Amino acid sequence: MNIIARTMITGSSNFIGIVTAGFDNPFRSKLLAPLVHQLALNGFMPLLMNADDPQQLAPRLNNC
Prior knowledge:
- The protein has 64 residues and is α+β, with helices and mostly antiparallel strands.
- The chain has one domain.
- It has helices at 3-10, 26-41, 54-62; strands at 15-20, 45-50.
- Strands 1-2 form a two-stranded parallel ribbon.
- The two termini are 23 Å apart.
């Protein structure tokens, strides 16, 4: 079944949003990589959003 259709029928999704700053930080990458991997193994779909610029972030979060 199409993921959008399933979300509309069930009223829920397997998406998990992760908002963080510093994607270019090696420590952050080492932290996020296993987290994203484990989420995927457990059937979740991680969505990553960069929070380096809060002024650009707020409108994006309001549209979610």
